[in-house]
Amino acid sequence: MPLVTTGELVTRATAAHSAVPAFNIITLEHVEAVIAGAEAARAPVVLQVSENAVKFRYGRLLPLARAAVAAAERASVPVALHLDHVQSDDLLRQAVTAGFSSVMYDAARLPYLDNLAATRAAADWAHSQGLWIEAELGQVGGKTGEPPLDAHAPGARTDPVEAGAFVADSGVDALAVAVGSTHAMTTRTATLDHALIKRLSAALDVPLVLHGSSGVPDDELTAAVAGGIAKVNVGTALNLAMTGAIRDFLAAHPEAVDSRKYLSVGREAMAEAARRIIQVLGGTSA
Ligand code: G3H
Ligand code: ZN
């Protein structure tokens, strides 16, 4: 099946009142596991590569991107490629040639007007290249390299009136919103502001994106999708599954040396985690 675009998956999900699952990939095992999970759920999926993952891969986007494209082309479900949490203009400009149909440009750490100016420039460029672009307004805390932030602190959440102006003035295609989730949570204990999600959904004419979804319990995710969230970003949940499974395997098999043995176990655990989350989101049938 050929690669599809993130924009078409999000549009379909919005029409179906479901959400597109978007998983962060770091290794080839992540790529294979997410596609296996989506195939098991018979649902489309977004593979996303964050700027931090590119840094981990010695600053090179292409090796992981090419592997993801090759795996996606052989998948039995629609798969799209998204470049996530991009701050570097140099990385942004690699998106098209590397096979991505969409980017999330992250200038949310900047004051409002600076975020707007940087995002508008990124959106102009992205649209000139045919890319779908997501940006962030408000503070979804827990990002690598940034100071800790309380998702419930006053001023952390996205303001609907400001968000309306931000979307209109920047021209972005989707907005990541701060509604109570936090990146990199290892417990599923986040509580979301569902009234705010509904207000944002009513105020904006673009789809809403939930970040930091690993820490969000199933019933909160279901309610968030019902309230208008159309793309759900998940990263840490895969790493929790992979690392836990490998840790258990190596504890039970201290003599193990062949990396295929424990990577298989880690990959299977990630595939099952992805399948489960996709089913919770009620993904549109592939
Ligand atoms: O953009 C990526 C997501 O927001 C991942 O967050 O690792 O907390 O699931 P998470
Ligand atoms: Zn995120």
Automatic annotation (TrEMBL):
SUPFAM superfamilies (UniProt xref): Aldolase
InterPro entries xref list: Aldolase_TIM, Class_II_FBP_aldolase, FBA_II
Enzyme class: lyase
EC number: 4.1.2.13
Keywords from the named record: Lyase
Highest taxon of the lineage: Bacteria
Cofactor names: Zn(2+)
Pfam family, one: F_bP_aldolase
GO molecular function terms attached to this record: fructose-bisphosphate aldolase activity
Cited NCBIfam families: cbbA (TIGR00167)
Name of protein: Fructose-bisphosphate aldolase class II
Organism: Streptomyces pseudovenezuelae
